[in-house]
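Figure S7 source data.
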Amino acid sequence: MTKLDFLDKLGIEDVNLGGYSDKWLGSGSDLDCITPVDGTLIAKVKQCNPGDYENIMQTSSEVFKKWRMEPAPKRGEVVRKLANAFRKHKSSLGKLISWEMGKIQAEGEGEVQEMIDIADYAVGLSRQLYGKTMHSERPNHRMYEQWHPLGAVGIVTAFNFPGAVWAWNAMIAAVCGDVMVWKPSSKTPLTAIAIQKIVNEVMTPLGWDGVMSLLVGSSRDVGELLVHDRRIPLVSATGSCHMGRKIGEAVAKRLGRSLLELGGNNAIIVMPDSDPELVLRAVLFGAVGTSGQRCTSTRRLFLHKSISSSITEKLISSYSQIKIGDPLESDTIVGPLVDGKAVQDYSDALEIIKKEKGEILCGGNVIKSDGFYVEPTIVKANMGMQIVREETFAPILYLFEFENLEEAIESHNSVDQGLSSSIFTKDMQSVEKFLSHSGSDCGIANVNIGTSGAEIGGAFGGEKDTGGGREAGSDSWKIYMRRQTNTLNWSDDLPLAQGIEFG
Ligand code: NAD
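C-alpha cells for the predicted nicotinamide-adenine-dinucleotide complex:
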C-alpha cells in the first residue's frame, strides 16, 4: 500500500491498517479507498452504520443546546482557530485532496485556501448576523426581527470539492450557532477524516466536541437516515441533479428545508470584439481544470462566426501542449478522473457524440495506463444534439457558432441547468444585454472571466435544475438560521393591528 508523508502530518497514518478506531469512524463495513493517480488501494475505512448514526445524532442534539447559547462572536473565535489550523495544514491537506480525488496539487491547495477564506469570512460574519427593526403602526410598540440558530444541519458533499464544500457550509453554520453532521462522498473519505481530525484538534480542548461530526457511510445506510430525520431542519446537499431530486423530494415531504447545489452545464459566449488571449486562458482553465470535474467547468463554448475558426485553431494547439499525468507533479495540468466509472461515462459520452454526428476536433481517447486518465476533448457540435444538454463530468468541450448575441443567449439558456455563465466582449451593450433580465438565466454571470473559480464573498449557486440554493457569501447565512419577528408593547393599552376594535 502507498503511504505518503503528508498523511502522517495530518495524523491519519493508521488508516492504512484498516483498524482505525477514532470516534467518528463507525462499526459498519470497510470502505476501500482507491487513488485515481495509479488505481491502487491506499486505505480501508470503517464506515458508520445506523447505530453509529443514532449515537452521533443524539450527541449533536445535546451539544446544540449549549452551542446555541454561546455568543456568536465567541463562536467566531472558535472558527478563527479552525482557520489557523487549516493554514497550518494547507500543504498536507492539499496534497491529500490531489492524491484522493486527482485534482492537481495547485488546485488541491487552492481548495484548502478556499476553506481558510470562508472561515475568515465567517469570523467577521459572527458580528454581523443582523436583523431589521421596523416601525410599528401601533403607538409605543417596538417591532424587530432576530435570527436564531436553527439546529442540526446535515451536510452531504460531492467528491470534486471534498473539503471546500463542507467548509462553505460548516464555517457559516458554526457561527450561526448550528451543529452539523457531515456525510462526505464515499469517493473521498480520507480528506473528510483528515479535516475532522483538524477540527477535533481545535474543538476538543475547547470543550466543543460534537459541534461538527463526521459520518462516513453509504447513502443507503446513513445518507437516507439523515435526509429523512426530522431532527435535522436543514439538509444542505451538493451533487448531481439526480441526487438533488431525490433528496429535495424527501426533505420537502417532511417539510424540512433543503439547500441544493447541483449540476451545471456552463457556457461562455465569445463576441467578435473580445480579447482572444483572455478567452483562451479562461476556456482552458474552465474546460480542462480539475479534469472537467468542477460544477462550474466550461462545457459549452459559443463562438461568433467571425472569430470561430481562429479561436478553434488556437484552442486545439493549446490542448496539444497540455501535460496529463500525476497530479502531484508540479508541471501536470490535467490529472486523472476520479474513478473507473467516470472514465466509462467519458467513453459513453463519446459514443453518443459520434452517433449524434458531433465532430471530434481533438482528444477523445482513454489513456492506457495505471490510474484513470483521459484526453481533454473538443467537439464541434450543435444544440440539436442531446448529449450537449447533459453534464458529463469529464473534460469534453462543445463548440457552437452563432451570428448574433440574441441567438447565442437563447441557445445558452435552453439547457435544464443554470449554474455559471460568462461573456467575453468589450462592448457595453453586449455586456448589459447578457446581464439583463432577458440575458443569462444562471446564478452566476461573469464578464471577461471564465465560468469557474468563484470567490467566497458572493452568493454561490444556480437556478433551474441546479437547485436554486445559495452558499458562501452575501446573505447566504440566512438559510442556516430561523427568523423570528418580535413585537413589544411598552404602552398601558392593547391596540390591535389594522385598527380593529374588539369587544
Ligand atoms: P453524487 O450526486 O453522485 O453524490 C453527491 C453526494 O450525495 C454523495 O455524498 C453521495 O453519497 C450523496 N447521495 C447520493 N444519493 C443520496 C441519497 N439518496 N441520500 C443521501 N445522500 C445521497 O455527485 P458526485 O459525483 O459526488 O459529484 C458530482 C456532481 O456534483 C456534479 O453533478 C457536480 O456538478 C455537482 N456539484 C455541484 C456543486 C454546486 O455547487 N452546484 C458543487 C460541486 C459539485
